[in-house]
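Sanity check record (used in CI):
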Amino acid sequence: MINIPKGTKDVVPAEAYKWHYVEEKIREVAREFCIGEIRTPVFEHTELFLRGVGDTTDIVNKEMYTFNDKGGRSITLKPEGTAGVARAFIENGLGENPQPTKMYYITPVFRYERPQAGRLREHHQFGVEVYGSASPQADAEVILIARAMLGKVGIYDLSLKINSIGCSECRAKYNKALKEYFSAHIGEMCSTCRERLDKNPLRILDCKEERCKQIAADAPVILDHLCDECREHHEKLCKALDAAGVSYVIDPHIVRGLDYYTRTVFEFVSNAIGAQGTVCGGGRYDGLVEQVGGKSTPAAGFGMGIERLLMVMQNVGVQIPPEKRPDVYIAPLCDRGCDVALGLACRLREKGFAVEREISGRSLKAQMKYAAKIGAKKVVFIGEDEIEKGIYTVKNMQDSTSLAMTEEELTEALK
Ligand code: ATP
Ligand code: MG
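Expected output for Histidine--tRNA ligase:
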């Protein structure tokens, strides 16, 4: 027996309806917000993520699935969805179209993390990218899209946390203040944070270690270091959210795990699934397109973890409608009945009905048990007698009544 790799999951047919439901809702939201879908490869040149995501992040440093292909190229399985979209935006000349460009994706994401509840090595994300608008209205739009999606699947009890991490100028000043602060506590921090202190002190605020979190709690706050433009951007976003009636908290500790963010960062956090409560993370990343080789293009977006979304839905008791049951199960009672059943199944399926027919050669009793189990609404019996008379015996599984019907009557009854 070969087992599934650690940190990955199968979706079996009996569970797939939940995914279909979420995907349907994603496409509904996309339609309502006029967002086109973009599909990019599951793997990219490693260089894209080094440049895009940033080489001081955990994702790039520790978590990427990177290998050389047979042509000796360094290839990486997507560790996030945005960099590939930025590359595709440039490569397909999407910036030549009237702007902004709004795109969404549903993609598997691969990170070599320590598997635990809500933390997988392959997970899936619904993501949105809005390119070409520097206005805080675009940030607000992105947040509204995420919120609309969460509402569509019945999740209302989430906190929206927002912050601004400024531009490279305010960040430089802030990093200096952070360095000063953390230097005084270096002995108490984890080894990774000690390294972060020199390379990227902002990352320390994102550390999951308890002792580092405690020290970070009193660290200087970036909102006090924002330049005038960044502060104005942040205030305008808050105003737009107020106007939309969206409640939020400003959380100066949200910095996000990827280097590409500028100004706005946000998270939707649920209390329903324990430690891994962040269902959605996003923000603005005005430097990304240029960083991966395109023209300077303002951009904003988010990624939403579908597995975590499903966990929250389950924990708050969202009822997902089960997928359509078979309209009819066709039970042949003799050899000749098998051929007739096959013809009938083909004709009914062509009319759009969900039809199951016996293909295992079981006894009538076993067939009936099976038909009940799969929830078939009706069962059609085809024996010598039925073939002789050119009719079908149709059992209504809801009330257990049986009727003799012509094919025309059966078709009507199935509607
Ligand atoms: P976290 O802080 O939980 O590690 P992150 O900041 O790494 O999340 P992003 O890179 O912004 O997350 O990804 C967006 C969303 O994808 C997250 O909010 C989360 O819902 C989901 N996600 C991220 N990593 C995983 C994972 N390993 N397993 C399952 N879902 C994940
Ligand atoms: Mg992470």
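The chain has a mean pLDDT of 95. If this sentence no longer matches the regenerated tokens, the check is flagged for review.
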